[in-house]
Amino acid sequence: MRIVIPLFDGFTALDAVGPYEVLKMLPGAETVFAAETAGPVRDSAKTLALTADAAFGDITACDVLVVPGGRGVRDFLTDPGLLDWVRRMHATTTWTTSVCTGSLALAAAGLLDGLTAASHWSAAEDLNELGAVYTGERVVFHDEQRIVTSAGVSSGIDMALALAGRIAGRTTAEAIQLMIEYDPQPPFDAGSLDKAPQAAKDLLTAGLNR
Amino acid sequence: MRIVIPLFDGFTALDAVGPYEVLKMLPGAETVFAAETAGPVRDSAKTLALTADAAFGDITACDVLVVPGGRGVRDFLTDPGLLDWVRRMHATTTWTTSVCTGSLALAAAGLLDGLTAASHWSAAEDLNELGAVYTGERVVFHDEQRIVTSAGVSSGIDMALALAGRIAGRTTAEAIQLMIEYDPQPPFDAGSLDKAPQAAKDLLTAGLNR
């Protein structure tokens, strides 16, 4: 089972690494990070590079595609070659998935037309403009279309565990959850627009490092 | 505020990237991945490399040290030069932290003598043998010693948010939590030894890909 995670300049590292850490433990998993050219690819903050071991052109098929988000996804959206690659991969996958604004790439590739989909909360309008229907749900499965989208950044862990359950069964997914000791205990309760206090939202509007 | 994340062959990527994604958003944060030599460093599965932009020898001080775990930490533990580097960093930090079996490195460096500490559940005995006192808590703060340890892999996100709150105040930490949309909704409830069903534990004993 080949799992491919595309990288692009300005991706968000946790979007990619959360699902990677879960899916790589699936029986028979072979995980490949890919990019336009093989080599290091910088994240949105430019302080971390992940190595792509393959170029997009080297990969003609995969079982699971995991498209991360990040500010750099905007460039990705306007590259017809990349969107065509996403479409060609999707034609071969069992599951095509996204984390955070990665769903914008799936939408721009025409894979989410008229479908409900998750994304980072800040990208709701953009997602709708690309033909999908934003929902605040954390993980959205469309079995018939073989598509799973998930919300901002950290949601990729929840998505990947749910997907692991679909692919390999509940017990395997639970074993992976135990292995990564995913028993979340956030010290605050501000992880969604509904829950975050206004002061925290105001601070984001003013701008944090990203 | 300089945040340093040391890498070594066989680290666990999510241990490093979870806290990175949180702490890099702190006001004034400058995050540096470091390793024995600068360049790509492979994780425990060898299917992902993160780039170290600095060598340990280039770094003489930092405000926050985040030591990840992973199977490769075993080699790290027996390298007197590396343990000496950890001790020298700790002499300069405001907070010295670990995720997963990263706490074994802190213990081997003599920083956890007689202190309660968290680690991956599978490393409890090893941690105790190195002079710390394993606890199943997810995040353990020792304010006087300026040390924070956290449990397996995914716990680094909880640790980093709690630390962000200590460093920059609750509202900033909440804004970061909202930015990474950390509103966990695990599809299963198997994230600790207490919660995981026996069948999942048996599967781990039999061996998963790692």
UniProtKB/TrEMBL annotation, chains A, B:
Gene Ontology MF, one? lyase activity
Pfam families named in the record: DJ-1_PfpI (PF01965)
User: Which keywords fit this entry according to its UniProt record?
Assistant: Lyase
Superkingdom, natural source:
Bacteria
Q: What is its EC number?
A: 4.2.1.-
Q: Which residues form the DJ-1/PfpI domain?
A: 1-163
Protein name (database record):
DJ-1/PfpI family protein
Instruction: Write down the species.
Output: Streptomyces fildesensis
Lineage, top ranks = Bacteria, Bacillati, Actinomycetota, Actinomycetes, Kitasatosporales
